Amino acid sequence: MRVVPCFIAMMVSLFSSALLAETATEIVRKSDLQMRGDSSYTEATMKIIRPTWTRTMSMKTWSKGMDLSLVLVTAPAKDKGSASLKRHREMWNWIPSIERVVKIAPSMLSQSWMGSDFTNDDLINQSSIVVDYRHQMVGKEVFDGDQTWVIDAIAKPNAPVVWNKVRLWISQSTYLQRKVEFFDEFDELVNTMKTYDVKMLGGRQLASRMEMLPADKPGNKTQIITHQAQFNFVVKDSFFSLSQMKALRD
């Protein structure tokens, strides 16, 4: 007589877990869409902060869907025109000082983008968190006064990703990612991203200040301050091309 209740309890548990997994995945998908829209354009300042020096860059970013993105550096003069392009699973960097296009191999995704604490993967492969990971609900916490869902994203087998696990704190009111922790294959914390100053930009709420902090380098961090944003405009796929990446100017 005990077998049936135990079986029912097991099935309820499995069904509940499936619902939680589906819910977590949907939250992550909505979060990605909230931050990028069907298409997006942003103007931002990146500040690389070190214990003895600070470096500032201006940048513009375009994206379309989950497969197309382009980042252009507009200042300072020595970096102006440098660009990064993603088309589906392929990524490239354009270095105007030597007039060379460098294809970003999977092994290069973990490398620093322009000397910052953000990786190539962080800046130009952001939607990977939706398609290359399994998602599971961990709990709920408050971050910066914002009630959030805490969700673990675990890399799928053989996925071409940098991080083995990503823990996300996603706002229950705006679906913005308020905090993100990045873990390596040994489940050790490598970087932590935090977002602040949520405001209306381009007709939607965005966290206008983002900070990336490496776990093993106290005093180091990189900030991205977003000044302007537009969403859901018409842009052709052909805009996201190698020729366009090399031709873009401020």
UniProtKB/TrEMBL annotation:
Q: Which UniProt keywords apply?
A: Lipoprotein, Signal
Residue span(s) of domain Uncharacterized protein TP-0789: 67-246
Gene3D superfamilies with a match to the protein in the record: Lipoprotein localisation LolA/LolB/LppX
Signal peptide bounds: 1-21
Which Pfam families does the UniProt record give? LolA_like
From which domain of life does this come? Bacteria
Question: Would you tell me the protein name for this molecule?
Answer: Outer membrane lipoprotein-sorting protein
Q: Which organism is it from?
A: Photobacterium alginatilyticum
